[in-house]
Design brief:
8 helices, alpha+beta, CDK, Phosphorylase Kinase, domain 1, Transferase(Phosphotransferase), domain 1, Kinase-like_dom_sf, 2 domains, six-stranded mixed beta sheet
């Protein structure tokens, strides 16, 4: 099997990928945009299946395939889980350059490349931003359980996501939550002792004499050590929710709770229990890109409804809370 050099995409690793044109799909509407490119809701013309097309931005890559896209493709090819977004295929627009054997050379590609994903109706940010949206405790636990299950699967398969946020947590109208956007993800090995984040090198005052004399130095220097205030700030939270939150926000990675252990936390095993995903309400498509666009529109005659704050501690309706009846098997 050929291996792509850094900055290259070897479509030969998956012969079917890259063999179809984006013309096989009809773009319906844009649902996302970022430094990576644009995301469109689209329909496969032959089957009518709704998918998400992620157009990879090539503007600043000096004719090389973006390294973040290469990482995402390679990682998603090896991850197959209900709580991880599925990469279905790669398609191209007219303009490829081919090698002597007629195969597409990802390093000399002049057209556009799209990643084809399964379509998800919402992302968590867009869904949370809906006017009047308020999650119940069983719903919050349902989403959190799926998030941690997906993370645990990634860690077992030696993948760090490194970009967990609401817009990267996709949800469909069946209540399924999936991790998405693996552009910043990294693979690791158990014997890996190196850093997995960018290195920032600085110095201390001993090695930088006179630093305290620099104008504004003392203005930016904390006057005293910052006190941990999680319990004080969120004292109104349920006790088990607060305990789990504190353990997940522990600064020292060696002391921080793992995704696997978090799934066995008391929070998930006390009433109200996580609801069944299929019992979650269905909503009109809600993505951060769309809700942000609506907020930026000029104010119309009718004022938008004020957003209600979602709170993890509000126990509004403990219905559909009989999904979990026994703890996870310790052997998992």
């Amino acid at each position: 099997m050929a291996v792509a050099a850094p900055g290259q995409l070897n479509l030969d690793e998956s012969p079917a990928w890259g063999s179809r044109s984006v013309d096989c799909f009809e773009k319906l509407e844009q649902i996302g945009e970022g430094t990576y490119g644009q995301v469109f809701m689209a329909k496969e013309i032959r089957t009518g299946e709704i998918v998400a097309l992620k157009k990879i931005r090539m503007d600043n890559e000096r004719e090389r395939f973006p390294i973040t896209a290469i990482r995402e493709i390679k990682i998603l090819k090896k991850l197959h889980h209900d709580n991880v977004i599925k990469l279905k295929e790669i398609v191209t627009s007219p303009g490829p350059e081919r090698d002597d054997h007629g195969k597409i050379d990802g390093n000399k590609y002049k057209g556009s490349i799209y990643m084809v994903f399964e379509y998800m109706d919402h992302d968590l940010t867009g869904l949370s931003d809906r006017p009047g949206m308020r999650f119940t405790v069983p719903q919050i636990k349902c989403y959190m359980r799926q998030l941690l299950t997906g993370l645990h699967y990634c860690h077992v398969n030696q993948v760090l996501h490194r970009d967990i946020k609401g817009s990267n947590l996709l949800i469909d109208n069946e209540g399924n939550l999936k991790l998405a956007d693996f552009g910043l993800a990294r693979s690791f090995s158990n014997d890996h002792n190196g850093n997995l984040t960018n290195r920032v090198i600085t110095t201390d005052e001993v090695n930088w004499p006179g630093v305290s004399k620099i104008p504004w130095y003392n203005n930016f220097k904390p006057s005293r050590p910052m006190k941990r205030r999680v319990r004080e700030t969120y004292k109104h939270f349920d006790r088990h929710a607060l305990e789990l939150l504190e353990r997940m926000l522990t600064l020292d990675p060696s002391q921080r709770i793992s995704a696997k252990d978090a799934l066995d936390a008391e929070y998930f095993w006390t009433d109200p229990l996580p609801c069944d995903p299929k019992s979650l309400p269905k909503y009109e498509s809600s993505h951060e890109f769309q809700t942000k666009k609506k907020r930026q529109q000029p104010v119309n005659m009718k004022k938008p409804q004020r957003r209600l704050q979602t709170s993890i501690h509000d126990n509004i309706a403990p219905s559909h809370s009989t999904v979990w009846t026994k703890r996870r098997d310790d052997s998992d």
